[in-house]
Write a structure and sequence with these properties.
heterodimer; A: alpha+beta; Chemotaxis protein chec; 8-stranded antiparallel beta sheet; 8 strands; B: Rossmann fold; 6 helices; 5 strands
């Protein structure tokens, strides 16, 4: 049994905490893009480190990943990855609509990812009476080898990750991205403890 | 005379949060639905006085419930409780006849203020 095996109630509680966090992240996205975002129920799954790239990303050579570390109280910490599929990266470039002499696409996608990640994690943290700080977001070169190398350089070991599948559809465009939270085992145990505290209240 | 309440949310925790925020006169016999389809089945067959409705749900979402209620002339006060807090979404649910939009996680004081404002309490 892994540290991340959740009971039905724990899974429901985590899902609701994530729904609320996603709602506010989507609101920020809508404001950033000046459009309306259709929000779907996010799916949550745990993945092993060696399975991270197995599903959902057929063209791994062109995947775009923005990585950002987060640190909270009670040993809750990890690395958030926003993973975009290549066709969606191009849609985003159109959607963001900057002129050539403004920010580069790399800067734009880092900005967008940071908004989503920090809003999501700030709201998630506030619901569990925690508070996050962040490292600077980094766009990892668009190939799996670079991403894998980046992950092995993390300051903690992780065997399991929480993968939140986020689907955004805006008025004229749609794109999907996966938010993957790499969380070391001791932090997962701490999150479960917090979830149990919430459930005890009911 | 008792008030018949229906709470529709796909999250067990969220349903409990609403139940806990309601005065006992409303919560004691409240019915629960886990998606819009279940809620509509109850609304079509029973006398419900107040509906607390989530938006982002499987099968039929909250907007679908509000639209069906409008199409079928099912009239009762609806309080939308959602994490999808975009201003445009709030406008949409109010245009579809909801009495109020409350953001998740629902707060006891806010819920009760709105219930009083709309004459439920």
């Amino acid at each position: 049994m892994s540290a991340f095996d959740l009971s039905e109630d724990q899974q429901d509680c985590l899902q609701e905490l994530i729904n609320v966090a996603m709602g506010q992240a989507s609101d920020q996205l809508a404001r950033y893009l000046n459009t309306f975002v259709y929000l779907k129920v996010p799916s949550i799954e745990q993945v092993k480190s060696d399975q991270l790239f197995d599903s959902g990303h057929q063209n791994l050579e062109a995947i775009a990943v923005v990585s950002q570390g987060f640190f909270g109280y009670e040993g809750i910490r990890g690395e958030a990855l926003l993973m975009y599929q290549p066709q969606d990266s191009h849609r985003l470039a159109d959607l963001l609509g900057y002129e050539d002499d403004e920010m580069s696409f790399d800067e734009q996608i880092i900005d967008l990812s940071s908004i989503l990640t920090t809003t999501f994690l700030n709201v998630f943290a506030s619901q569990i009476d925690n508070q996050m700080s962040y490292s600077a977001p980094r766009l990892i070169s668009a190939n799996q080898g670079m991403v894998s190398e980046h992950l092995t350089q993390q300051a903690f070991n992780w065997d399991l990750a929480l993968k939140v599948r986020i689907s955004y559809q805006v008025t004229d465009y749609s794109f999907n991205c996966d938010m993957v939270l790499l969380i070391p085992e001791e932090a997962i145990i701490n999150i479960k403890t917090v979830i149990d505290r919430i459930l005890e209240d009911f | 005379m008792s008030t018949n309440v229906l709470i529709c949310d796909d999250s067990n925790l969220a349903r409990k949060q609403v139940l806990r925020s309601l005065p006992e006169s409303l919560s004691s016999d409240a019915q629960l639905a886990t998606n819009g389809e279940e809620a509509l089945a109850i609304l079509r067959n029973q006398n419900i006085d107040v509906l607390f409705l989530d938006l982002t749900m499987p099968v039929i979402d909250g907007l679908g419930v509000l639209q069906a209620m409008q199409d079928e002339s099912i009239e009762l006060p609806v309080f939308v409780i959602s994490a999808d807090i975009q201003p445009e979404m709030q406008s949409r649910v109010l245009n579809l006849g909801a009495k109020a939009f409350l953001r998740k996680p629902v707060q006891l004081e806010t819920l009760n203020e709105n219930l009083k404002l709309h004459g439920i309490l």
